[in-house]
Recover the amino acids of this structure.
């Protein structure tokens, strides 16, 4: 049991405010009165927890500010009032109340403390909102921490009676005829009317509305009434029929039943009539009409012929044995196409579009390629030919002076354009053998190799001197040479005399030095 007594109440005039006959959310001032009805007590801290939210047990959806005053009643004299310190606790919905001077202050019997929360938005859901309190006090029995709870009852806002009788002044209108919609309902609602393509907010003072545009086809209007306090909505609908509706499009999910369909514009009153076998097309005069379309997707067409739009256009006729393509005069015509996909073609020849273009004849032996004029053999031009074999006397480049390959009985001859022996250029040649008199580098002054009977000779660009052979590694059974020298001209060198081995230094005849880890000599 606490040493102090707690009572909570609100200002009755502010529980439900009214402005020009329109309701608003309930706001008010909440007071928490703390009194001492027993013996003298010192107090140091009072903590008040406010339930925040929109639920049944919540006082307000948003924590307000709180302030407080302590009154010393002073029986028989003028009461004295002073403010107390009220601090909201960070990230909580708890207020901490302490004496203005800090520390502990006396709370004598009959004195009272009033905590005030102004402009509190009361949670809309009816029910008790309970404030919980923790107090820190001290009396002759020592220091105490005590808890208590105090309740405030919220009442639900008064519900506005639902609107009714939403209706048009006429159930069917003609094209362009004005229309008025009306209903009965409280002015405390927020009204709007929904219609195809838009909506319109309606003043609460009126109960009627005329659409700015008369309906062109059957149109449904929806009245939406919203309670500004509870946000509860009511919906009423009404549909207006149009005697001669105008439709941009017509979509039927099941079917349309009608004996005929006719055009509406003057001079364009062709008619489609539905018979037992299908449809019939009639023109303005009532005779058989013409179907004009960009495309026709049909399972079949039965007709004697098909012709272009003009009388002299080509014509396709359908005899029993297939298809005839005729000119406008009736003579055999020409088929023009970008592509023909056929199982077979029986024809004597095929030619290009011009009379001097090449042509292909179909002989019994196979295929003949001819020039446009006469029967001279023609040329085949292709990016690639994939053949099992080619029988030809020679193959040459595209120009008359290009190299030529000829096919004698003993193999292959490479010639230049004049007929002399030519040069074969390749990145790599993989051959079983090469018979040649010499091999040289790519430039005319490069070294070259000849193949005498004795073996191999390496020459400089002229035929009078042997040259150097530079190799990274060489394996030979016998190497015949006069001298061996290092890579540089001033390196030491070894000469081979009849008597044995001479070691010389640099470019002269001075004897050089033999460097070795070990040398075994007979003398």
């Amino acid at each position: 049991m606490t040493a102090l007594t707690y009572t909570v109440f609100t200002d009755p005039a502010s529980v439900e405010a009214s402005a020009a006959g329109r309701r608003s959310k309930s706001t008010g001032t909440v007071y928490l009165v703390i009194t001492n009805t027993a013996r003298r007590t010192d107090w140091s801290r009072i903590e008040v927890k406010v339930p925040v939210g929109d639920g049944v047990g919540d006082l307000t959806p948003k924590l307000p500010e709180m302030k407080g005053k302590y009154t010393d009643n002073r029986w028989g004299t003028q009461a004295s009032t002073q403010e107390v310190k009220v601090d909201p606790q960070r990230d909580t919905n708890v207020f901490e109340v302490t004496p203005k001077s800090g520390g502990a202050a006396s709370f004598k019997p009959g004195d009272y403390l009033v905590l005030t929360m102004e402009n509190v938005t009361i949670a809309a859901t009816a029910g008790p909102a309970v404030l919980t309190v923790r107090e820190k006090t001290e009396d002759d029995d020592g220091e105490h921490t005590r808890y208590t709870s105090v309740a405030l009852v919220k009442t639900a806002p008064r519900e506005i009676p639902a609107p009714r009788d939403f209706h048009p002044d006429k159930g069917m209108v003609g094209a362009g005829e004005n229309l008025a919609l009306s209903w009965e309902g409280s002015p405390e609602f927020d009204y709007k009317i929904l219609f195809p393509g838009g909506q319109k907010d309606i003043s609460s003072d009126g109960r009627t509305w005329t659409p700015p545009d008369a309906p062109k086809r059957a149109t449904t209007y929806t009245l939406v009434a919203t309670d500004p306090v509870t946000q509860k909505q009511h919906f009423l609908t009404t549909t207006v029929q149009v005697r001669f509706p105008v439709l941009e499009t017509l979509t039927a999910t099941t079917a349309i039943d009608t004996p005929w369909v006719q055009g509406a514009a003057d001079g364009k009153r062709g008619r489609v009539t539905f018979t037992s076998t299908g449809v019939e097309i009639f023109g303005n005069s009532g005779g058989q009409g013409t179907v004009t379309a960009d495309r026709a997707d049909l399972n079949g067409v039965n007709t004697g012929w098909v012709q272009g739009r003009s009388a002299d256009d080509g014509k396709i006729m359908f005899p029993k044995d297939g298809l005839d393509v005729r000119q406008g005069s009736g003579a055999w015509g020409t088929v023009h196409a970008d592509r023909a996909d056929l199982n077979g073609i029986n024809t004597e020849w095929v030619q290009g579009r011009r009379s001097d273009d090449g042509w292909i004849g179909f002989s019994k032996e196979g295929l003949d390629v001819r020039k446009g004029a006469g029967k001279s053999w023609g040329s085949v031009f292709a990016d690639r030919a994939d053949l099992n074999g080619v029988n030809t006397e020679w193959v040459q480049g595209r120009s008359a002076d290009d190299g030529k390959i000829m096919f004698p009985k003993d193999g292959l001859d490479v010639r230049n354009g004049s007929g002399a022996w030519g040069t074969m250029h390749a990145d790599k040649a993989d051959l079983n053998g090469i018979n040649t008199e010499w091999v040289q580098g790519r430039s005319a002054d490069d070294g070259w190799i000849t193949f005498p009977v004795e073996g191999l000779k390496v020459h400089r660009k002229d035929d009078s001197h042997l040259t150097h052979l530079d190799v990274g590694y060489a394996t030979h059974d016998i190497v015949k040479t006069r001298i061996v020298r290092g890579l540089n001209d001033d390196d030491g060198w070894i000469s081979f005399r009849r008597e044995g081995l001479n070691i010389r230094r640099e470019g002269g005849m001075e004897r050089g030095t033999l460097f070795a880890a070990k040398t075994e000599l007979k003398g």
